[in-house]
Specification:
- The protein is built from two helices and eight strands.
- The C terminus is likely disordered.
- By secondary structure, it is of the alpha+beta class.
- Helix content is 15%, strand content 52%.
- It has a single domain, classed as OB fold (Dihydrolipoamide Acetyltransferase, E2P) (Beta Barrel), CATH 2.40.50.140.
Length: 145
């Protein structure tokens, strides 16, 4: 079966939330929002067009990087695959469409960023702080909108 890959540019709409699952896997979830901009010739100005929103899931090392680097409002570029998740609740089948991210980064056409490469000691400290009940991240990257 073919995967549906997409690239989305938009803004982080909710603060990323890093969780460690019972099996030890790490996942960060957040919502991304993108609004089309188009030029209205009659009014001679740019106006908002259609909006797109998606739930985003980042796994493993990407989960850690997103949790420490991004916060609500940050402009981002996300590449990933679209998946449908289904489950049963209250006797009814439910589903949600989710973007499973392969890569996430700041949209440098709309902000600046200082890059810090992940080091194992830094990553281990983040994970340890989660297990100790401390905040999962320390406020985000240096990024100016």
């Amino acid at each position: 079966m073919y995967e549906t890959s997409v690239t989305v540019t938009g803004n982080v709409a909710t603060d990323p939330r890093l969780r460690v699952l019972p099996d030890g896997q790490q996942v960060t979830n957040f919502r991304v929002m993108s609004t089309e901009r188009k030029f209205d010739r009659e009014r001679q100005e740019w106006v908002d067009g259609d909006q797109f929103a998606a739930n985003v899931a980042c796994w493993r090392r990407l989960a850690e990087g997103v949790a420490v680097s991004l916060s609500k409002g940050d402009p981002v570029v996300i590449t990933g695959r679209v998946v449908n998740r289904t489950w049963e609740a209250d006797g009814q089948r439910r589903w949600v469409t989710e973007l499973v991210a392969q890569s996430v980064g700041p949209d440098l056409s709309r902000c600046t960023a200082t890059v810090t490469r992940n080091r194992k000691a830094h990553t281990a400290a983040i994970v340890e702080s989660i297990h100790d009940g401390q905040p999962a991240y320390d406020g985000g990257v240096d990024a100016a909108a």
